[in-house]
Amino acid sequence: MTPADPLSATFAALADPTRRAILARLALGETTVNELSKPFDISGPAISKHLKVLENAGLITRGREAQWRPCKIEPLALKNLDEWLDQYRQFWEQRLDRLEDYLRELQGLPPKGPKDPKNRKPPKDKKRKGGK
Questions:
Q1: Strand partners, 66
Q2: Digit-coded pLDDT (tens) for 48-95
Q3: Which of 9, 15, 29, 94 supports an S-S bond with 57, CB 3.0-4.6 Å?
Q4: CB of 10 closer than 8 Å to CB of 56
Q5: Residue pLDDT, tens place only, 3-24
């Protein structure tokens, strides 16, 4: 059964540590199914099932070139996940900023106010968007 939306499929695929390890390996570059299965003590069919879940979630693509069956990561699916997570990252950064101001107030110090953009790293996808 496939989840109703791409984000649910992504989270379901990432819920398994073997699939996360496969993605970590594919982040280094395209490779074959046989190479992907080497570090795991599981059967070939089990690796194929993991790859199918990752593929159905749009996290990887699998090809076929003669006897070579390359797998590669699909960065767009991870970018969509990062964009979804960014709204929560911003929420927690704002909360922590308010907590810092409150603690400074309790200590009798003035609030720091707006963060100095030079000293604060923007969320990753914001940095990418600005670079276009």
A1: none
A2: 999 999 999 999 998 887 777 789 999 888 888 888 899 889 889 989
A3: 9
A4: no
A5: 568 889 999 999 999 999 999 9
Tell me: pLDDT of 38 over 70.
yes
Structure tokens at 96: 């922590």
Report which residue type is found at 19: R
Q: What is the DSSP string of the chain?
A: ---SSHHHHHHHHHTSHHHHHHHHHHTT--EEHHHHHTTSSS-HHHHHHHHHHHHHTTSEEE--BTTB-EEEE-HHHHHHHHHHHHHHHHHHHHHHHHHHHHHHHHTTPPP--SPPTTTSPPPHHHHHHHT-
- C-alpha distances (whole Å) from 50 to each of 36, 53, 99, 126 are 11, 5, 42, 31
| Alpha-carbon gap, residue 54 to 66, rounded angstroms | 22
- Structure-token pair, residue 84: 């979804």
Length of the chain: 132
